[in-house]
Amino acid sequence: xxxxxxxxxxxxxxxxxxxxxxxxxxxxxxxxxxxxxxxxxxxxxxxxxxxxxxxxxxxxxxxxxxxxxxxxxxxxxxxxxxxxxxxxxxxxxxxxxxxxxxxxxxxxxxxxxxxxxxxxxxxxxxxx
Length: 128
Hints:
This protein is an alpha/beta fold. Helices cover 37% and strands 34% of the residues. It has one domain: Transcription Regulator spoIIAA. It is globular and about 40 Å long.
């Protein structure tokens, strides 16, 4: 049985993309699917927490087909705010269209990559 607290909530969707949110223990997981480009970046910035505090957030981007620099910038700002507040941030994906720009731009310190949400959570558990 799924409780309301753990049931995924669709926060928004547009033509070619969607963003859902759910809690997985002490981690908030945002599930992004589809194509994220300039036309989506402002909406994405509005939907993600502006002041996340010291939360633990994983972006599940395993269903992302495209992510341009405008959306990466939105995600980078979220990761930076989380780090500054003492929170944790990670990106879960093996999708080349997401992994390649993060690696090429050297964003791994702020946006660490993991193949799955569980792998991201495990990396934090291993540090304690």
